[in-house]
Amino acid sequence: MSTWYERGVFYHMYPLGMTGAPKHNENTEITHRFDQLNRYIPHLNQLGFNAIYIGPLFESSSHGYDTRDYKLVDRRLGDNSDFKEFVALCHQSGIKVVVDGVFNHTGREFFAFRDICEKRWDSTYKDWYKGVNFDWQSPLGDPFGFEAWQGHFELPCLNLFNPAVRQYLFDVIRFWVNEFDIDGIRLDCANVLDFNFMKELRRETAAMKEDFWLMGEVIHGDYSRWVNPEMLHSVTNYELHKSIYSGFNDHNFFEIAHNVRRLEAIGRELYTFVDNHDEDRIASKLTKHDHLAPVYMCLFTLPGIPSVYYGGEWGVEGKRTRTSDDDLRPAISMDQADTLHCPLTDLIGKLGHIHAENPEFHTGRYQELLLTNRQYAYGRWDGDSLIVTALNSDDNPAAMSIPVPVNANTAVHLLEPELEEVPIENGKINLTVPGNWGAILKLKGGSK
């Protein structure tokens, strides 16, 4: 039996951006914006999403990753009762909720950092941060030096080797589980977190809630170092993200297929995406806008746990600049949904339901069936059941003859069920795939 996250179809929310919250948290009053997020829930149900990754959420000074208080929802979004209601509404609709865990660093307004500023070497918390040194000042004028994340001194790095820090963070997570009933955590900067901390985190959270999911932000490296029975369940599959958009832009399906083959040992567990709050929108990355459709077909049918970044279902564009990520994180209200609705919206809805309803896409084995620069076909297995995806990145229709290692008679179109079944002759599916399109076919009648 697969877990909820193996069956997951994720929707990624960056709440400070999507609700139009102020960039800086300078006011004392609470502004209740969760009603905007609550309105997304029926929309997500309609499109087949059954999980949300939302974050950052907790009280911070600016972009959300400079945490002030791990036990308070950011006042620009609302209060704790607002988020508690949001999670409850999601659960009532069959949607799991995963939040951002920013445990590598805090903001400078976090209580432990402020205590060191005030009491210096007499502070109980002087060992809570990495590299604390009272012989020099930070570039921001703090009365001590410390290690900062990538040299950003507004983000002092926590000392996760300190048992008191680890215990504090575990207590925070226990609070999130007890107070909000969250279903998992996405670990910010997991690539630089202490491995022993993550092992202990896995043991602690497993005892807090059954099937609690831990996913880490990892860009480069051997993903199996993080994804294993002792540490995390999943990491962000940046390698596939890169190969998908460049594979389409360069008309080179070999790049995608090579990446999938290399990651197949752990690929079914990886968190897959085509854009996020740190990356240019896929609609802006692609050379051909017409490639959006087969790109999302790829995302939903290749091994992995697919995620769509908010606005992706409407083909929203956006690029980061040297100084700002604002265009990646625009305010979008459900009041705009009818205006933004487009054929891509309907396609993603179909893909979401197809993925959620077919176990071949959850834990199913991957098998490459046909590969050229501009055509690509592969199968996903569940026992003896096989689903074949055929993709065409060329502008012109492509006749594809796909060998299938199963004694089946016909193949049924899942994406376009109104189309006639495709006969299987001499062990091959022969069909013509329109330009910049694809087909998802479930084989009928027979066995391996």
TrEMBL record:
InterPro entries linked to this entry: Alpha_amylase, GH, GH13_cat_dom, Glyco_hydro_b
What CDD domains does the entry give? Answer: AmyAc_euk_bac_CMD_like
Query: Which GO terms label this protein's molecular function in UniProt?
Result: alpha-amylase activity; cation binding
What's the top EC group for this one? hydrolase
Keyword Zinc-finger listed: no
Q: Which reaction does it catalyse?
A: Endohydrolysis of (1->4)-alpha-D-glucosidic linkages in polysaccharides containing three or more (1->4)-alpha-linked D-glucose units
Q: Name one GO biological process term.
A: carbohydrate metabolic process
Under which EC number(s) is this enzyme classified? 3.2.1.1
Going by the UniProt record, its keywords in alphabetical order are: Carbohydrate metabolism, Glycosidase, Hydrolase
Q: Check the record and name the Pfam families matching this protein.
A: Alpha-amylase
Domain of life, per lineage: Bacteria
What region holds the Glycosyl hydrolase family 13 catalytic domain? 28-338
What family is this protein classified in?
Answer: Belongs to the glycosyl hydrolase 13 family.
Identify this protein by name: Alpha-amylase
Which organism does this sequence originate in? Enterocloster lavalensis
